[in-house]
Amino acid sequence: MSAHSSPCSILSTLGVQALLLRLLPRLDPPVAASAVGFGTTLRLREQITAGARAQLAILTDEAIRDLAARGILDGQSRRELALSWVGLAVRAGAPHPSIATLPDFLATLRALPSIVYSQSGASGLFFADLIERLGMAEEIRAKAMIIPAGFTAEPVARGEAAAAIQQISELMAVPGVEIVGPLPPEANAPTRFSAALFADAPPAAARLLDAIASAMTPAALAEAGLSPP
């Protein structure tokens, strides 16, 4: 490992945090939660580019391919793990607004008194682009809580905002909220999460990656709000 090695064995996107923390203790041998460093793909890619190293990375597929092209990750080891969709959540017990169709979703966006999304997460970047394309950016930003990173549902659970936008798997990681559902197809896009070994990873890292990929069964993915790639 380089002088910039992380104390963690895995650097992982928040999109699979809840699932990974559930699966790691069940592996053989089990892996401690402290072995994982979580963050948004954007921030982790910046850290890795600056020299952070671990044994394997779990990021968006785009980021994995980019880092492999630079020789930082081993492109031959790339494994697609999961697909995630963007959804909306409200505080537990609050009415569920309609978002089933694009007109319903647009009406809900306009009616919500406040909404939270992330500045650096994949879903936050997607949503910021979406409201630009819909011609609603100024209107939505005027009532939005835009957090730098992390789980957007946390302010909703505390009663600080009416609704949160994020990957459904990330919304599900926060107690005290309820998932209304995925955004309508015309206003949604899947994020593909993949994993790859660092170029200088030890042989044991390949076994860890195999174990994680095998543990991410369709049932395990569904329980975490994800789907098979």
According to CATH, the fold-level topology of the largest domain is D-Maltodextrin-Binding Protein, domain 2
How many DSSP H or I helices?
A: 10
Radius of gyration: 18 Å
Strand line-up across the major sheet: 2-1-3-10-4
Terminal CA distance reads 30 Å
Overall domain count:
2
> How big a fraction of the residues is strand?
15-25%
- What do we call the CATH homologous superfamily of the largest domain? Periplasmic binding protein-like II
Mean pLDDT: 94
Provide the low-confidence segments as ranges: none
CATH class of the largest domain: Alpha Beta
The biggest beta sheet reads: 5 strands, mixed
Architecture overview:
The chain is of the alpha/beta class and 229 residues long. It has two domains: 10-83 and 191-223, D-Maltodextrin-Binding Protein, domain 2 (3-Layer(aba) Sandwich); 86-187, D-Maltodextrin-Binding Protein, domain 2 (3-Layer(aba) Sandwich), CATH 3.40.190.10. It has ten helices and ten strands. The protein has helices at residues 17-23, 41-49, 61-69, 102-111, 122-133, 137-141, 153-157, 168-171, 203-215, 218-223, and strands at 10-13, 36-39, 56-60, 79-84, 86-91, 115-118, 144-147, 163-167, 177-182, 191-197. It has a five-stranded mixed sheet with strand order 2-1-3-10-4. A five-stranded mixed sheet has the order 7-6-8-5-9. The longest helix has 13 residues, at 203-215. The radius of gyration is 18 Å and the shape is globular.
For this entry, give a set of tags.
single chain, alpha/beta, D-Maltodextrin-Binding Protein, domain 2, 2 domains, 5-stranded mixed β-sheet, 10 helices, 35% helix
